[in-house]
């Protein structure tokens, strides 16, 4: 109601931050400036304010051990200074928000210089972030001296710290463990596992801040974990969803990780300053790697510049995104460019974002009367497994296609089941009595509709124990081409009719 009322700056989820105590709340971020950052041209900065290590299935918090890793006084003496000469290469933050109660800093901050007297510290350390008892004043300047590359000794995790950063809820759904096992299959490289997790999330899930709020329900297995709800049911979310899911999968793979919140600031090429607003609020993982220590790892595909084709001020996004007005506004404030979709679609075929052999998500077999449960919404996407062969690519392609068709008015199979999805698709584009030959080419000979043939092949492979055949790939290629062509033709026919 009052989007510029100053007190709203400090309300989690409204104004300038996301609520870590209630994950999945719909954010309402405002574009009022909080501070201006001055630094090297073209630099991307993760300005952390708070960091959390404990996850209970619906929220993030700071464990007792986490908060006591350093005495407050020691952290104040070590990192805050109101005198001394500020290094020329230090970042400068000029505060503009009157109700800003946190001290933004980078992960590799060496020293924090204040131009006025030291603020009263309510609590925190470099591990958890600093919370103030009172806000910064307008115009207050903060200087962040950072370690040079190679200057900071990598942190060595003690046993207690490692356990804290590997913590997972005792009742974590088994399906999440299955994902982690698949992503870490055939490799012991922690970097490759993290890259696989990033790619898995980027290619299979859609970015949007216009999402239904997550309703935690301990009595419902599917609703008892926020990450499970995102990965298996909703498939759409923003940085909170991606970061939480990434951290859980990393921890399940043996990689210490924690949940950081703050702001993502991009200083445009050719410039030295950037304005940080509530739209810049962000959440991301920090992961610990042997020999490197703690590093930022971007889990949200829409916040990763590698997933865009950039032309001037126009950013062409190549993966899953819902460009509703709220999401467009937020992303443009986050990255500082005008967002458009690649080729009018959410996806660009064949693009790779990480230099690893991608493990693809596919539908797995389920015991008992599998062909019966496929008709229900609950089992539209049953337990999953990971492969990197042609069969995996077929399921992966089908899932991407179903998401693309949802924009055309065909609800995804996860909402309807595959059988009803096929019926909805036929109603949307009309059917042609066409069958597919062994080369994947359409034939005009009477037979089962092409859609039914493809769905029958898919269900036979996923649920009926049908042996894999390369013919299925050519069938899918022809099916995809046929569906997209006729979706467009149907649209044009409607336009001509209206004219």
Which strand order does the major sheet show?
A: 7-9-12-8-3-16
**Secondary-structure content class:** alpha+beta
- Major sheet size, sense and barrel closure: 6 strands, mixed
On the 0-100 scale, what is the average pLDDT? Answer: 75
Strand tally, please?
25
In helices, the fraction of residues equals 25-40%
Report the C-alpha radius of gyration, rounded: 25 Å
- Proportion of strand residues: 15-25%
Morphology? globular
Number of helices: 14
User: What's the end-to-end separation, in Å?
Assistant: 41 Å
Low-confidence stretches: 1-14, 343-388, 432-448, 491-499
Q: Can you walk me through this structure?
A:
It is built from 14 helices and 25 strands. It is an alpha+beta fold. Strands 7-9-12-8-3-16 form a 6-stranded mixed sheet. A 4-stranded antiparallel sheet has the order 4-15-17-18. Helix 4 (174-183) crosses helix 7 (239-252) and helix 10 (390-406) runs parallel beside helix 14. The longest helix is centred in the C-terminal third of the chain and has 28 residues, at 471-498. Residues 1-14, 343-388, 432-448 and 491-499 have low confidence and may be disordered.
Protein traits:
499 residues; alpha+beta; 6-stranded mixed beta sheet; 4-stranded antiparallel beta sheet; 14 helices; 25 strands; 31% helix; 21% strand; globular; disordered N terminus; disordered C terminus
Record the SSE blueprint:
Layout: E1 14-15, E2 28-29, E3 33-38, E4 44-52, E5 54-55, E6 60-61, H1 64-67, H2 72-79, E7 80-81, E8 91-95, E9 109-114, E10 121-125, E11 129-132, E12 141-146, H3 159-165, H4 174-183, H5 190-204, E13 206-207, H6 226-234, E14 236-237, H7 239-252, E15 257-266, E16 273-277, E17 281-289, E18 293-296, E19 308-311, E20 314-317, H8 325-335, E21 338-341, E22 360-363, H9 370-373, E23 384-387, H10 390-406, H11 413-416, H12 418-429, E24 435-436, E25 442-443, H13 450-462, H14 471-498
Parallel strand pairs: 1-2, 7-9, 13-14, 20-21
Antiparallel strand pairs: 3-8, 3-16, 4-15, 5-6, 8-12, 9-12, 10-11, 15-17, 17-18, 19-20, 22-23, 24-25
Helix pairs in contact: 4-7, 5-7, 6-7, 10-14, 12-13, 13-14
């Amino acid at each position: 109601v009052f989007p510029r009322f100053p007190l709203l700056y400090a309300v989690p989820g409204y104004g300038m931050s996301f609520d870590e105590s209630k994950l999945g709340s719909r954010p309402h971020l405002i574009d009022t400036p909080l501070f201006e950052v001055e630094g090297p041209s073209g630099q991307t900065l993760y300005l952390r304010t708070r960091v959390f290590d404990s996850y209970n299935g619906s929220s993030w918090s700071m464990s007792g051990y986490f908060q006591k890793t350093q005495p407050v006084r020691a952290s104040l003496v070590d990192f805050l200074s109101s005198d001394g000469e500020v290094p020329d290469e230090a970042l400068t933050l000029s505060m503009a928000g009157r109700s800003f109660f946190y001290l933004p800093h980078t992960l590799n901050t060496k020293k924090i210089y204040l131009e006025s007297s030291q603020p009263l510290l309510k609590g925190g350390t470099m591990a958890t972030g600093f919370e103030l008892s009172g806000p910064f004043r307008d115009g207050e300047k903060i200087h962040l001296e950072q370690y040079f590359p190679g200057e900071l000794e990598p942190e060595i995790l003690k046993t207690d710290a490692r356990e804290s950063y590997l913590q997972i809820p005792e009742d974590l759904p088994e399906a999440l463990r299955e994902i982690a096992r698949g992503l870490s299959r055939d490799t012991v490289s922690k970097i490759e596992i993290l890259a696989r997790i990033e790619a898995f999330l980027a290619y299979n899930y859609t970015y949007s801040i216009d999402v239904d709020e997550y309703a935690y329900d301990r009595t419902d297995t599917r609703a008892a974990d926020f990450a499970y709800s995102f990965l298996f049911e909703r498939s759409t979310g923003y940085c909170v969803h991606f970061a939480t899911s990434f951290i859980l999968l990393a921890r399940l793979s043996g990689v210490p990780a924690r949940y950081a919140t703050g702001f993502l600031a991009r200083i445009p090429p050719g410039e030295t300053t950037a304005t940080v607003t509530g739209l810049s609020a962000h959440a991301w993982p920090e992961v610990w790697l042997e020999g490197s220590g703690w590093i930022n790892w971007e889990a949200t595909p829409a916040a990763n510049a590698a997933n865009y084709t950039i032309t001037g001020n126009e950013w062409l996004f190549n993966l899953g995104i819902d460009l509703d007005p709220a999401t467009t506004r937020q992303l443009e404030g986050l990255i500082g460019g005008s967002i458009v979709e690649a080729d009018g679609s959410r996806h660009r075929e064949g693009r790779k974002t990480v230099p690893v052999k991608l493990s693809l998500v596919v539908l797995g077999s389920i015991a008992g009367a599998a062909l019966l449960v496929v008709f229900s919404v609950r089992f539209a996407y049953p337990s999953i497994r990971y492969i990197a062969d042609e069969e995996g690519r077929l399921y992966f392609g089908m899932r991407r296609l179903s998401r693309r068709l949802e924009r055309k008015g065909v609800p995804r199979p996860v909402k309807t089941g595959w059988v009803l999805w096929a019926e909805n698709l036929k109603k949307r584009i009309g059917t042609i009595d066409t069958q597919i030959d062994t080369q994947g080419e359409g034939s005009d000979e009477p037979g089962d509709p092409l859609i039914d043939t493809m769905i029958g092949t898919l269900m036979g492979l996923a649920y009926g124990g049908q042996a894999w055949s390369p013919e299925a790939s050519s069938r899918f290629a022809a099916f995809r081409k046929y569906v997209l062509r006729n979706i467009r033709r149907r649209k044009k026919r409607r336009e001509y009719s209206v004219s």
